[in-house]
Amino acid sequence: MSDTVRTFIAIELPPDVRAYLSDCQARLKPAGGDVKWVRPELIHLTLVFLGDVPAESLGDLEAAVREAVAGRGPIALRASGAGRFPERGLPRVVWVGIEDGSGALAALQKSLADATAVFAEKVEDRSYEPHLTVGRVKSGKDAMALSQAIGALAAAQGPAFEAREVTIFRSDLSPQGPAYTALGRVRLGG
Question: Model-level pTM?
Answer without folding.
Answer: 0.94
